[in-house]
Amino acid sequence: MLIKRATDQIPSSEITPESVYMDRRQFIGRFGVGAAAMAAGAPFVGATTRSGILPPTRGRQDDELTSYEAITSYNNFYEFGVDKEDPARYAQNFKTTPWTVRVDGHVEKPGTYDLPDLLAPFTPEERVYRLRCVEAWSMVIPWQGVPLRDIINHLQPTSAARYVYFETLVDPEQMMGQRSRILEWPYREGLRMDEAMNPLTLVAVGIYGRPLLGQNGPPIRLVVPWKYGFKSIKSIVRISFVDREPQTTWNMMAPNEYGFYANVNPEVDHPRWSQARERRIGELRRRPTLMFNGYGDQVAGMYSGMDLRRNY
Amino acid sequence: MTQVVSDAPPDPRPSKPRRKPAARLPLARIAGVLAFLPLANIAFDAATGGLGVEPVETLVRRTGWWALTLLVVTLAVTPVRRLSGWNRLIQIRRPVGVIAFVYAVVHFSIYISLEQWFALSYIIEDILERPFITAGFLALCLLTPLAATSTRSSIRKLGGKRWQRLHRLIYPASLLAVLHYFWLVKADTRPPLLYAAIVITLLLLRVKLPSRAGDVSKRSKAEPAASRS
Description:
The complex is a heterodimer of chains A (about 300) and B (about 230). Chain A is of the alpha+beta class and about 300 residues long. Helix content of chain A is about 20%, strand content about 20%. Chain A starts with a helix and ends in a 13-residue tail after the last helix.
């Protein structure tokens, strides 16, 4: 299975170099991971996947983990600049403590949560997901995080909540990209409630067993593996439960190019380029793109009866 | 503007090889070497793994950026020459233009090979259906006859006037190259807009600074000078 292969391939020294080890302990500690696990020295990676919601491994058998270096040096995070190298360069000192998340809308437990409080009830787990960017490149990333649905269940949205809406931090002091209006800040994203409740949808806090670096959207970000990467909003400060389809950044920017759904679909091209193939970072040749990024078994049912050409 | 200063080049027709041997910078050669330096730098980065985690994209971007930039330099020669009166500058026009074409060819070759792996159906689909690729491809097509007629003998064969008329294809080619850049950008259109502004300014300067009577013929004769050195 993917996870097993992943841990086989990556020497543990690479996953948790000594210098990072202390960070990792703090990281886990912040989460309230059981003392037993800590005492046993269980590595964070792959330690706590719950049964029943194992990451899907269907699709290609040749999914190798993308290197940590690539994942942390090739990023789209326009808050820190538009070039792929900009986030790694300009997000180095991105300060993410303290961090609060505002929860509002149709929900029983609204409020402004300190991040550790919001995450305290949960045990982080590992998910190895393919990430397909709308620009036709892809990666395979070992995330650590909490299923969004666990957090949602904890917050108890009311029956009026039909969509979940997210916002990224606005802080031009730190996020130099926000000093110009390349996009309309804050960055916003949203999911239909059933998408948000899908077991695949993850709120990630780490990659390769380490806390997210500035360029990867710390301290918490969304990961929606069957949708183009821009749906996986970074550095979330607001979670709103709303009753109608929220506005989302790229859809506002170019509605003919980026839809609300943004499901990975090799048959519906971007107006300016083909989505039929993708380049896996680290590989030279392009490979075919899979419907729903290969997660069709888990998600296709949510879209039955929908015209995916119109609801791109 | 276009007055011949005392140390301006003598009429440099091949029949008169009489030139002051010293005190003349070999402008064409210097420009040629300078224009090839970025390519050497790109090759060095490619050989030493310095192209980042997505090397193909980096190769395509960098070669494309230099092709466009050198096209702009080529376009700038005539306005700068006329505004400054530094007539010898004309010598760099042809070599830089040819090297711009070299970058464009490398750019396209990387797209064909490393980007598409010679999958003809994808390449044709791209050229026909993706406007930004259509524009880039057309620009390359327009530049090809210019590169092909960049030798001294071509100039002689075509005659200065016809040669010049043909080489005005660089105007639409530059506009298409800018469009190619503009259409591929996702959100930050400022860099391509800057290029568009520069190219349009350089083209407008040609209208604003009409060549004086006799200038055209002078230039058509002067053109072979660029092939010296």
